[in-house]
Amino acid sequence: MRTVTAAAAAAALAACGRRSSGPAFAERDSAGVTIDESHAPAWGSGQAWTVEAQPAVRIGTVDGPEPYRLFHVGGAAVLSDGRIAVLDGGSSEVRIFSKAGTWIRTMGGKGEGPGEFTYPYVMCLLPGDTLAVADARNLSLFDAAGSFVRSSPGALRVAGRFADGRYLVQPSPPLGNLPAKGTIRPSRALATAPPGASQVDTLIVVPGDEWYVERGERTLSVQRRPLGRIRSIAVQGDEVATGDGTTFQIRVLTEDGTRVRLIRRDADLTLAKSTIARFEASIDTIRNEAYRKGRRQLMRDLGYPDRLPAYDRLFFDPDGDLWARHYVVADERPSHWSVFDPSGRWLGVVVIPGGLRLFDIGDDYVLGRATDSLGVEYVEEHRLDKPGTRDEQ
Asked: What is the mean pLDDT of residues 320-346?
């Protein structure tokens, strides 16, 4: 099979960043905070990780049997025996497939009864292959066999789960007094909560996403600011990684809110004319004429920033490596991810093919949602190849 290589991409991206006459990676202490700073990728020739362009497993269909029809896929995970769990938001179901992609069973469904969902949006894989699904009302648990276990009430938005069983949640931010027209950036609290608890312990309050607001006498329009900053969060073990891409810096904290370290890498974030042209070309592809015209007018009103955010998603893999997706301007296919090892060192860039939205990263695979030109959704598993060992890097 063909592979998408990261070696050339890593070299090019490193060349675009600020160059330093010092070491490629340095760790230092500043007022008790560890700062891990990379000026070049650690991977050398033949060490870059690659993802095969063609999926090893593909789940989905245009007009086939109902269990294979996917819409608004909100999550997917590979269980310990290779089975694949898929959260289909359109049907409010969790569907279990074999490791080859054959449908086995379906759990959940729309409703307010035990094991049913109201607008499910995230699925977490817990120890023992337990699946936790959060919706607008509850957090519901299903065992490895797919049987419903219990639900815990609460509409807090779940962002991840710590090793001790607590969840990282995001209480809804107060919007305050909204302007008649303009950009807002409400603060966002990151908090911990035991399953079923209504009380939360706030870890940290940080700037949230950037939104554009337009208020009329009887109307209110709130949308993400185009090319705006996005608060990214990832959880693993007892750590939280978070950042907004203002620079290529990621803050890592323990679950009690203590700052552990700052991870940084060089990057040139200047918004190039070619990037603006690509963004404007994406507006031209919008089929709805009124929305297309509105989008163009919005960009005329806002103007373009001088700099692009560095990243817009964070993800931990099983080895504790932290993946950061380079900011997506216009549905880039493929996407590029900078990978940092547990020490905070920048290893290099992995290229993910086909606009795949990642839900799960394993030792030798990535799993995510792909969408074709007709808007049909698929869950795809692609092989991940990691040549060499960490001792060699």
From this structure: 93
